[in-house]
């Protein structure tokens, strides 16, 4: 089972949204990373067959998806970035409707819908109109419809947007379990979501595929470029102006621990100890930090760091990502 | 079939559809009743006037024979002579009600038959000699021939076709008092409004899914292309067609019950022009109009669904759909006659939503599509074209939806 993308390109007026992308997607969870406008959604829509590439072709198990037609769609599940639904439909109506379109016999559909509602915590809102659900619940209905036919190939564009941290963890676990012997391709701005579960990642920038590999392979690209140091809180604005800070945390005694991206450990010019400083209140020496996928993302897309704003607190306990986004934008 | 059923359920669950269906029902009841309120006779109004009119004109009911016409015309002229009046307007009201009103129904169209062949202006009833009515139906044919000479001067095939059609009209005509043309007009008005409602229901069928992004998901499912396109097209045609049929049946049943079922046995020529080419009674005309309007409405819905499959926003699809319904009227007012005639035949909504150019009013006219030495009566052409367009537009909509890609 493999999805082969061969030299795919798509141009909208004067913008080349996808530019000669080639990759072979094998079973497992794949993370598709990239800033806004990188071409992820366009690529996914071409894989879904709802957009025709200008050049290149997409093959599933060696056959062009255009010739497979219904047979391809039979094993396919798709959650687009914008989840469109019929406002007059309840969750039940909608899932039954999509199940019929997916060719599930009525009895199987009922059983499958029941299981997914249970799994996604939607049982209580089964008879509610989708339009009246919260953003997170709507997203879960979207996820449910994509999983209805237990697809071999599942494409999800920003599946976790709108989900709270608990829901995201449940979704990740669900997907990890689901992905056995299946291809799951997820695009997201919330890097930890794929970092935890993706077997491989692909990174797109300006319509091109610029990197591909396991999380471990990819983070090596920023090995030696992630630093951590403790500084006096009053000097933070100065550091913010000069460094690409990706995270910060308030420490005791009016000091701040910062995590930043830089080519080398040396402090930029002008960030040395000043005359009035003592050893106690001077900056601590930078120490290299273990790189994470998010660091790679921010290294590759410095202007897009705001999109990591939804990133929850990482395992190291670093704080407000919204703050990070603000700080990194000032670079 | 399951997809079709679910799609049907979806359309019927849409609030806009329900509101429009309820409005259609309300309008049907209102429009079936309204024509009775316009009837006035012997100082009475409404249904009482209908009943009074039937009593007053009861003696003239039945076959419209030359003998009956002669007797009626003689009574008419005698009344005027007795009162020294040149027109009925000079008669006292009670005299008019007592002696003229009983004759107006059966004498309908007599002056039209004896109109001047060159000018088309009819003589007053006092000026028609009783002996002229001996061959009344022969005179009707002669009148049609002179009329066709005026209307289709350069098209002998159309003249011949008109005469051929009229030959099939059963004579003597039948007349049963009480019914009037207002009820027929309201049937056309109802058809116009129902066609607009259908356009509003049909316009979002595909474009709404494009606009909301719902299509992205549906299109990626196994049956999300041809089967879904066919189900959506079929379901909206069924909903609109069924709603129209129910409303039209209700309208005819209520109207005819209010006016009286015996009245609709009247020959259509006794309601409109005596030289009308359709061989129908009022009831047959009502059913024919309903049927032709239904075909036209379905073809129009087919066009709306096709437009919906091509247009990516609901508002644009709605505007295009409503414009397609109003186009026959615009063509009638704006297009040159010969071009307009062809356009009216081709535009799917002409029959149902054309109002002045609807299938009923086209039946009252003498317009023909002239193709070389052939002539086709316009109402027939309209019905035939709509019947051909219905599957064509429906198939085009399914094909277009199936092929839709960005």
Which descriptors would you attach to this protein?
heterodimer; A: 331 residues; alpha/beta; Rossmann fold; 2 domains; 6-stranded mixed beta sheet; 4-stranded antiparallel beta sheet; 12 helices; globular; disordered C terminus; B: 406 residues; mainly alpha; two-stranded antiparallel ribbon; 18 helices; 4% strand
Proportion of helical residues of chain B? 55-70%
What would you say the CATH architecture of the largest domain in chain A is? Answer: 3-Layer(aba) Sandwich
Report how far the terminal alpha carbons of chain A are from each other: 44 Å
**Biggest interface, residues from each chain:** A-B, 35 and 27 residues
Global outline of chain B: elongated
Q: What assembly state would you assign to the polypeptide chains in this entry?
A: heterodimer
> What's the rounded overall pLDDT mean of chain A?
84
By helix and strand content of chain A, what is the structural category?
alpha/beta
Overall number of structural domains of chain B: 2
Would you kindly provide a brief summary of this structure?
Chain A has 331 residues and is α/β, with parallel strands linked by helices. Chain A is built from 12 helices and 14 strands.
Can you put this structure into words, describing what you see?
The complex is a heterodimer of chains A (331) and B (406). Chain A has helices at residues 40-48, 65-68, 70-74, 91-101, 106-119, 135-147, 165-178, 191-197, 215-219, 236-242, 293-300, 321-329, and strands spanning 3-12, 15-25, 28-34, 55-60, 63-64, 76-79, 153-157, 183-187, 200-205, 208-213, 226-232, 244-250, 255-261, 287-288. Chain A has 331 residues and is an alpha/beta fold. In chain A, the strands form 3 sheets. In chain A, strands 6-7-8-3-9-10 form a 6-stranded mixed sheet, sandwiched between helices. Chain A has a 4-stranded antiparallel sheet with strand order 2-1-4-5. The model of chain A is unreliable at 305-331 (pLDDT under 50). Chain B is mainly α and 406 residues long. In chain B, a hairpin with a 2-residue loop joins strand 1 (40-41) and strand 2 (44-45). The two termini of chain B are 29 Å apart. Chain B has 2 domains: 2-37 and 180-403, no CATH class; 45-174, no CATH class. Chain B is elongated, with a radius of gyration of 25 Å. In chain B, helix 13 runs parallel beside helix 18. Chain B is built from 18 helices and 6 strands. Chain B has a two-stranded antiparallel ribbon with strand order 1-2. A two-stranded antiparallel ribbon of chain B has the order 3-4. Chain B has helices at 2-13, 15-37, 46-56, 66-82, 93-104, 110-113, 136-151, 156-167, 181-202, 204-212, 214-219, 226-259, 282-310, 314-334, 337-346, 350-353, 359-363, 378-403; strands spanning 40-41, 44-45, 62-63, 174-175, 368-371, 374-377.
């Amino acid at each position: 089972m493999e999805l082969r993308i061969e030299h795919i390109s798509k141009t909208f007026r004067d913008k080349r949204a996808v530019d000669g992308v080639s990759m072979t997607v094998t079973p497992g969870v794949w993370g598709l990373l990239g800033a806004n406008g990188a071409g992820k959604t366009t690529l996914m829509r071409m894989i879904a067959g709802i957009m025709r590439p200008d050049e290149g072709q997409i093959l599933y198990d060696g056959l062009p998806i255009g010739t497979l037609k219904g047979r391809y769609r039979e094993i396919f599940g798709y959650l687009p970035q914008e989840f469109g639904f019929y406002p007059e439909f309840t969750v039940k109506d909608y899932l039954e409707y999509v199940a019929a379109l997916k060719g599930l016999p009525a009895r199987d559909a009922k059983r499958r819908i029941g299981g997914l509602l249970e799994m996604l915590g939607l049982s209580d809102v089964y008879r509610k109109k989708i339009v009246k659900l919260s953003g997170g619940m709507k997203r879960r209905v979207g996820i449910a419809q994509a999983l209805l036919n237990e697809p071999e190939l599942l494409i999800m564009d920003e599946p976790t947007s709108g989900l709270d941290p608990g829901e995201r963890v449940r979704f990740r676990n669900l997907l990890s379990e689901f992905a056995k012997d299946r291809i799951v391709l997820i695009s997201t701005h919330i890097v930890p979501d794929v970092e935890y579960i993706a077997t491989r990642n692909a990174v797109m920038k300006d319509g091109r595929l610029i990197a591909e590999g396991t999380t471990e392979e990819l983070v090596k690209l920023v090995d030696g470029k992630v630093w951590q140091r403790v500084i006096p809180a009053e000097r933070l604005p100065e550091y913010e102006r000069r460094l690409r800070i990706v995270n910060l945390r308030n420490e005791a005694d009016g000091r701040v621990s910062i995590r930043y991206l830089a080519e080398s450990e040396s402090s930029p010019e002008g960030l040395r100890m000043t005359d009035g400083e003592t050893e106690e209140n001077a900056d601590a020496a930078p120490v290299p930090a273990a790189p994470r996928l998010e660091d790679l993302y921010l290294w590759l897309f410095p202007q897009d760091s705001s999109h990591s704003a939804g990133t929850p607190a990482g395992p190291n306990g670093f704080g407000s990502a919204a703050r990070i986004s603000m700080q990194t934008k000032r670079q | 079939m399951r997809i079709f059923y679910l799609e049907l359920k979806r359309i019927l669950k849409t609030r806009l559809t329900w509101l429009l269906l309820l409005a259609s029902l309300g309008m049907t009841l209102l429009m079936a009743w309204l024509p009775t309120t316009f009837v006035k006779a012997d100082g009475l109004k409404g249904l009482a006037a209908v009943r009074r009119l039937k009593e007053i004109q009861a003696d003239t009911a039945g076959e419209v024979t030359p003998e009956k016409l002669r007797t009626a015309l003689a009574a008419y002229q005698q009344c005027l002579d007795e009162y020294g009046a040149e027109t009925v307007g000079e008669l006292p009201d009670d005299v008019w009600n007592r002696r003229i009103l009983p004759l107006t129904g059966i004498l309908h169209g007599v002056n039209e038959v004896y109109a001047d062949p060159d000018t088309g202006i009819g003589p007053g009833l006092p000026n028609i000699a009783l002996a002229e009515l001996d061959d009344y139906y022969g005179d009707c044919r002669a009148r049609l021939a002179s009329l066709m000479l005026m209307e289709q001067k350069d098209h002998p095939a159309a003249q011949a076709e008109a005469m051929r059609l009229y030959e099939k009209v059963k004579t003597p005509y039948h007349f049963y008092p009480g019914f009037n043309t207002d009820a027929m007009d309201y049937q056309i008005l109802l058809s116009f409004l129902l066609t607009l409602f259908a356009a509003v229901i049909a316009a979002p069928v595909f474009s709404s899914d494009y606009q909301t992004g719902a299509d992205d998901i549906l299109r990626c499912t196994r049956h999300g292309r041809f089967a879904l396109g066919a189900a959506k097209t079929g379901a909206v045609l069924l909903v609109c067609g069924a709603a129209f049929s129910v409303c039209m049946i209700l309208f005819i049943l209520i109207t005819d019950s209010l006016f009286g079922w015996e009245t609709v046995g009247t020959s259509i020529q006794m309601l409109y022009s005596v030289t009308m080419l359709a061989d129908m009674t009022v009831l047959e005309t009502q059913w024919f109009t309903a049927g032709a309007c239904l075909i036209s409405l379905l073809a129009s819905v087919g066009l709306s669904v096709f437009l919906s499959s091509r247009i990516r926003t609901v508002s644009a699809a709605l505007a295009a759909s409503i414009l397609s319904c109003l186009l026959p009227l615009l063509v009638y007012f704006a297009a040159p006659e010969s071009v307009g005639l062809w356009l009216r035949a081709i535009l799917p909504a002409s029959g149902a939503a054309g109002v002045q150019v609807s299938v009923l009013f086209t039946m009252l006219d003498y317009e023909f599509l002239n193709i070389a030495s052939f002539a086709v009566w316009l109402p027939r052409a309209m019905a035939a074209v709509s019947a051909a367009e219905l599957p064509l537009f429906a198939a085009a909509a399914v094909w277009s939806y199936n092929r839709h890609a960005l």
